[in-house]
Structures are given as structure tokens and as C-alpha cells.
Design goal:
By secondary structure, the protein is α+β, with helices and mostly antiparallel strands. The strands form three sheets. The protein has a five-stranded antiparallel β-sheet, with helices on both faces. It has a five-stranded mixed β-sheet with strand order 7-8-6-11-12, with helices on both faces. The longest helix has 75 residues.
């Protein structure tokens, strides 16, 4: 409420005063019966002067209409007294005229001030609204910035964790778990990888809530095929309404209708697809897709690095010519198997294998032909070992083989099979097929020795016996 409107509260006061004057003039015995008393005349003149001052207020608040109306009411009330005043009437009327002029002037001034006040009030209110809107926008920006900072910190933590994961399995598990923590709710996270030895996707890892339904499409579905074909990320707010896709019955019965997917692209090839789905329609927007894109890019690099690390590690522990393990790795593994066998009391056998007459073969046919022989022997040993067995190029033309869970009889039988396979696999040198033979010495843990060096020494003794007895044979410790 403005100060000008507050002044209108004075109006009832003047109405009360006017009522009181009316009572004095027409009902008070003091005035009614002493009209021509000089004191009464002076009182009436003073009263008229007071009312002329009151007319200023009426003119000020209500303009011409209020001022004239008040003037008429006053004349009507005091008509008989004004007539009786005679000589003083000339003094009363100018006073009323002056008060009317003054009131009208104040009224105009009041209107102008009111307009200026209204304009200023509107301007202030407009500024207040602008400030409030600016404040709300700032609050929203700060909130959005806090969300972005939180997302970036989350991505940084994911990146840091993936950077310390050197195995592909660890990278996959971290990527899926952290993606699930990012989206949570009722979402499911699935990671499909392209099978290395055959075409198609394979579901390798999932993360979901306790009440979530298991994944039906283990080999991927319509959405994964679309991602692979287009090699770009996918956002589906409602799979039931998206005209781009025609779902098969299994997919059509899925409760999970909101989908985001990110392809893993390495060196221009798809190596996998990271997918997140939800039961809620429209739960995923561009922000969520961008988050998945970033996680996917980080995970792709981490998987690529893990695979390179694995290949590098294999290069470090495998002989480049034969593909067998190198001497250093073989010795470490043999030491570990000795300790395991001591704890579990399970035997294993060690073979020392040497190519017969290899130096003469090299001198006659050259080192290229010698490399072919080494490759051939390495290939046969690679085919003969089972899970956990160790085949190694021990040095030069000498090889070592560890057969786990073999007793002496089984070990000799396996050694004979290796010897025969090598003898039956000739190599072709300058269109000439040449047969190569090997001599093998066998020692068994727990029977012939219980320490690494002793095992190798016993197997080596047996190898030299095989050489001395005519080569191309298997000899075991007595």
C-alpha cells in the first residue's frame, strides 16, 4: 500500500467531524437557541474556517468532484447561518475559494507524484524481478556445475582405477561396476565383446540390482547390431515406440525399454558394446549418453592397453621362433610347481628333450633349415601339453617339458608319444623330406627328486643316457 492510499484513512475522521458539526448546528441547544449571539457567530466562522481547511483534504484526495461536493454540503449545512452573518460572509467565501484552489493544486501535484511513484515502483519491481531471475539462474547454473563437477570426479576415479588395471578381466569388471554405480536406479549394465576367433558378440560381464531380470540376449540383439553397423552410440527413450527398430519376440517381451549403448572402437574396428537399459521410459537423455560415451572411450583404451600388455608379457616369456616359454619363465614356473607339489603331494614329471645330430644338420642344410626343425618341434610340444603343463625352449636345440599330475608310467608314455610324433613329422628342405629325431630324459617329482635343481639334474642325466644308448629314445631314472 502506497503512502497516498494511506491518507484515505483520514476520510472517516472527517466524516465523523462533519457529523459532529451537523449535530452542533441542528441539535445542540447551545447553538440552536443562540444563533445571533456574537460568540456563537465567531464560533461558526471559526468552524467554517476549519471546514475550509478540511476542503483542502477533499480536493487533494478526490479532485474537483470531491471538493465541489464538500463545498455544496457545507453551504447547505450553514446556509441559514451564512445569511445571518452578513458582513462576515465576504470573508468566508474567499477562504473557501482559496482552499479549493489550494486543494486542487495539491490534487494535481498528488496525481503527478503518484504517477512518478508508480513508474518508480514498477521500475524497482522490474529490477527486483530481474535480480530474482538472475539469482535463480545462477542457482541453477551452480547446481548444474556441481553436477558436472561430480560427474567429472566420477569419471576421473573411473579413469584412475582403469589405468591401474593390467588384465583385460579386471578392466571389464571395473568398467561395468563403475558404469552401474553411475546410473544405479533399476538399470542393467551389459558389456559385449567381439569374439576373437569367431564373428559375433558375447556377453562377458553384467551388473544389475537384486530384483533385475537376467539378460536374455547373450549374443546381443537388434540394438547391438544397429550400434555395430552404424559404429555410433545409440539413445532409445522407449523401444516400443521407436520407429527405427523392429524387435523380435524375446526383445519385445523385455521390460527394459530405455536404452543407451556405446561401441568400443579400436583402430577402426568394433571390439565390443557397452549397454545400459532401464524399465523407465525416457530415463536416459543426452547427458547420460555423453557420460556413457566417456566411460566407453576410457574403457576402450584400457582394454586395448590390457591386450597390448598381455601380448608384451607373452613376448617377454615366449620364444619368438618356437612360441614356447623361455628359460627364465620356465624356471620360475617349475619352482612354483615344486612348492605346490610339496603342499599337495601330487607328482609331476620333467622332460629334458634334445634334437639328435642337430649341429650336423645345421652344418649340412644351413641355419634356415635348422630354424624349421626348431619350429616343428615347438609346434608338436605346443599340441601335446594340457592345461597347466609347461613347454619351454631350454636353450639352443634343447627343450624342457613339465607334465602335471603324471606318475612315472604315465610320464614315460607321454614322452614316447612326443618322440614318435616328432619322428613322424619330417620337414622339407630343398624338396627333400628329412626326418628328425629327439632323445628324452624323464624325472618325476617325489620319486626321483624333491627340489627343482635335483629334478633338472636327474632329467638331464637320463637325457645323456638316451644319447649314449643310441639316441631317438626315452630314458627315465631308475
Amino acid at each position: 500500500m502506497t503512502p497516498f492510499v494511506k491518507r484515505n484513512f483520514l476520510l472517516p475522521l472527517f466524516v465523523i467531524i462533519l457529523g459532529f458539526v451537523f449535530y452542533l448546528l441542528y441539535f445542540s441547544p447551545f447553538v440552536k437557541y443562540t444563533v445571533h449571539n456574537p460568540h456563537v457567530e465567531n464560533f461558526i466562522i471559526i468552524l467554517l474556517m476549519f471546514l475550509s481547511s478540511a476542503s483542502i483534504f477533499l480536493w487533494f484526495c478526490f479532485g474537483i468532484a470531491g471538493g465541489v461536493f464538500f463545498f455544496v454540503i457545507v453551504i447547505a449545512l450553514f446556509f441559514k447561518y451564512i445569511i445571518g452573518l452578513e458582513s462576515n460572509i465576504c470573508a468566508v467565501i474567499p477562504v473557501f475559494l482559496f482552499s479549493s484552489f489550494l486543494g486542487n493544486s495539491l490534487h494535481k501535484k498528488h496525481i503527478k507524484m503518484r504517477q512518478e511513484y508508480t513508474v518508480k515502483a514498477e521500475k524497482i519491481q522490474e529490477d527486483i524481478n530481474l535480480i530474482q531471475n538472475h539469482y535463480k539462474n545462477r542457482v541453477r547454473e551452480i547446481s548444474a556445475m556441481e553436477g558436472k563437477i561430480s560427474s567429472l570426479l566420477q569419471l576421473k576415479n573411473i579413469s584412475d582405477e582403469l589405468s591401474f588395471s593390467f588384465s583385460e578381466e579386471d578392466v571389464i569388471r571395473v568398467a561395468v561396476d563403475r558404469t552401474f554405480e553411475t546410473f544405479k536406479d533399476d538399470s542393467r549394465v551389459m558389456l559385449f565383446l567381439v569374439a576373437e576367433k569367431r564373428y559375433g558378440l558375447e556377453l562377458v560381464c553384467t551388473a544389475m540390482g537384486e530384483k533385475a531380470k537376467p539378460v536374455i540376449m547373450k549374443k546381443g540383439g537388434t540394438f547391438e547390431r544397429w550400434v555395430i553397423k552404424n559404429m555410433q552410440s545409440l539413445l532409445v527413450k522407449d523401444a516400443r515406440k521407436d520407429f527405427r527398430f523392429s524387435l523380435n519376440p524375446d526383445e519385445d517381451n523385455e521390460e527394459y525399454i530405455a536404452i543407451i549403448s556405446k561401441p568400443f572402437i579400436s583402430d577402426g574396428n568394433i571390439i565390443g558394446v557397452l549397454k545400459v537399459d532401464s524399465k523407465k521410459e525416457g530415463v536416459f537423455e543426452q547427458h547420460e549418453l555423453r557420460m556413457l560415451d566417456i566411460i566407453g572411450e576410457i574403457a576402450t583404451v584400457a582394454i586395448k592397453n590390457a591386450r597390448l600388455y598381455r601380448k608384451t608379457e607373452e613376448l617377454a616369456i615366449r620364444d619368438s621362433l618356437t612360441g614356447l616359454y623361455v628359460y627364465r619363465y620356465f624356471m620360475d614356473r617349475l619352482e612354483a610347481e615344486v612348492k605346490r607339489a610339496i603342499r599337495s603331494n601330487v607328482p609331476f614329471a620333467v622332460f629334458m628333450i634334445d634334437i639328435d645330430n642337430f649341429k650336423g644338420f645345421n652344418d649340412k642344410h644351413g641355419h634356415v633349415a635348422g630354424d624349421l626343425v626348431l619350429k616343428n618341434v615347438g609346434s608338436i610340444l605346443n599340441k601335446k601339453y594340457s592345461a597347466g603343463d609347461i613347454a619351454c625352449r631350454y636353450g639352443g636345440e634343447e627343450f624342457a617339458f613339465v607334465a602335471l599330475n603324471y606318475n612315472k608310467t604315465q610320464a614315460v608314455k607321454l614322452a614316447e608319444e612326443i618322440r614318435e610324433d616328432i619322428a613322424r613329422a619330417p620337414i622339407e628342405v630343398r624338396r627333400e623330406k628329412i626326418t628328425v629325431t629327439v632323445s628324452i630324459g624323464v624325472a618325476v617329482f617325489g620319486v626321483d627328486a624333491k627340489f627343482r635343481e635335483d629334478l633338472l639334474m636327474e632329467a638331464d642325466k637320463c637325457l645323456y643316457r638316451a644319447k649314449a644308448e643310441g639316441k631317438n629314445r626315452v630314458v627315465c631314472a631308475d
